[in-house]
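Thread title: Can someone regenerate the structure for this chain?

I was given the following input by a collaborator and told the matching structure tokens would be attached. They weren't. Posting the sequence so someone can regenerate them.
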Amino acid sequence: MPLSLRPAWQTSFVPVLPCYVKWRSARAGRFGNLGSRQDKETDARVIAGLTFFLGRALSRAWSYRRMTMRAACLLAATLALAPAGLGVQAAPMIESPHHATRFGPFVVLSAERARLVGVTDSESPAAFLAMIAAYPRLATLELVDCPGTRDDIANLRLGRLIRRHGLATIAPAGASIRSGAVDIFLAGAPRRAAPDARFAVHSWLSADGREAPSPSRGAMADDPARAAYVRYYRDMGLGEVQAGAFYALTVSVPNRQMLHLGPRDLARFASLSPLS
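Best answer:
Regenerated them for you:
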């Protein structure tokens, strides 16, 4: 048999592609739109692999000038089927955090959406203002895997800036928002969370290693940070009773431990909308 594309891809990749398309169509029907974020990333990898493979195959076929008519037809059909069957569209490069513009712990994903991707610190308020100046249409801040802050005072200042600029906060499916990042989530107006998003709170820890007085010991009146945090929670829209109760909840857990909360738990203290 003359050298052609058949051994390389007619017998391997082409039979697999329709199966993948059928599987993805079912996923898209179940999850809506094009499926989950992981599905879309898989699509991108499949298309990238397909492009690379076909590029090599075309190069070999051109070099030997032995492409058969059947191979050429299959090649054209595959190129047409992949984007249509998978529903993959070329995404703007800014949609990927690897290519997004970064401002401190924030990355800009689009003109209207940013994501908190790291620990906040004393420089984060300035980084947020720089991001807003560069992208004035930003309206949503995603929190996916956020461990907290290195500077509690700067973190509260950052939360107030987010609130002042009217950004909504979102905890998507699988989100883990911990420690000081919960205060950032509370800054959103509105706040939305997927059912499986998780929040974790604990007591603050000062630079010299001092923790908040335990409410169980009746020492709340001696807590120098209580007024600042309760005022912050009030500024974020919590009621007076809810603000005090939420602060008491956070300091009831030692700093070295975590109390994990679901969206329904957090909704006892702050208004929260479900994210479908």
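Residues 37-64 form the longest helix (28 residues).
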